[in-house]
Specification:
four-stranded parallel β-sheet; about 375 residues; binds 4'-deoxy-4'-aminopyridoxal-5'-phosphate
Amino acid sequence: DISRLSKTDDIESLKKNLTDIVESLEREAGSIKEGIEGCIGNTPLIKIKSLSDATGCEILAKAEFLNGAGNSPKDRVALGIIQLAEERGLLVPHSGDTVYEGTVGSTGISLAAICRARGYKAHICMPDDMAIEKSDLLQKLGAEVERVRPAPIVDQNQFVNLARTRATEHTKNPDKPGRGLFADQFETEANWLAHFAGTGPEIYEQTGGSLNAFVSGAGTGGTISGVALYLKPKLPDIKIVLADPPGSGLFNRVKYGVMFDPKEREGTRRRHQVDTIIEGIGINRVTHNFEVGRELVDDAIRVTDDQALAMAKWLVEHDGIFVGSSSAVNCVAATKLAKQLGPGHRIVTLLCDSGARHLSKFWASTEPVGGSEDDVSLEEIINS
Ligand code: PMP
């Protein structure tokens, strides 16, 4: 804070003040990191002041977009998947081995960056309705990208199925160097374990073990399960709450144990396939990474596209925080939960990725931020 310096006019006390500042900066900067992998994890926990002031709860967000390889929580998972495969002898650096994955973007970006750093190739299959920034970025990272029409999981060309097939084809093809490894983020133990070993303990340390609730969306379920499995035994009273976007069956899975609302009849499943501009969270099938922690999820909160958009704008306007759609969903759900719990509680959620990755889709749906005519209250946002 250089305002301290501006208050000093003689040069000797200015120097003394500067020495103090440099010393404290050195302490905070920490050690030299070992490549991009050294920049994964230990992300800051940020108090979101506007949401905290408005609700009387402390709303804290783990800044996962500051993970330093692919800039999302998926850095933790991608590194875990590759380390596990290396340990099992399934990947050998610089041998032509290629990691295949079906992803809406974030996991692919993390895998592509870490593969580069470790001497592997990456081949990413993704739905073609995801923001174009993500596939552009993947290509710049040297990954092979296959964009496919969105399809149900029973379809062999669905992006996850296609990645699995491509990995097998690679291994069977004698003309291709190395082998293919299917990363399998939805089913692999390496996913929830990365959050059990990293995100969960970090939240516990950063809050000094004092928190009332953890709120998160689920794309594979790895984050919510891993964090819940770590925190719940230590803090039996903590509430683990799922933030669920339109079209996802997980809300009903948490509330009723099945993917559709049993009170509704015929056609429910079809109605769930609604269009949404939220990317990265929401699932309509059972995945190991969600199921492994499902029993620990206490409640679920639905969030609409409009609420997420309004929250994303709110966070820029009031806090200067520019995030993507899943982070906005998390913040809406955290605010709704704060209203339910009442003032005086501490709630932790995640900021998953930057708004820069969503300019052409999520952020394209909203008017530019600014101007007093934009003023909406938080109450209006969570009830919109
Ligand atoms: N946010 C973003 C941007 C994501 O891409 C994902 C995962 N696809 C998530 C959140 C959800 O994380 P998880 O897979 O651990 O449930």
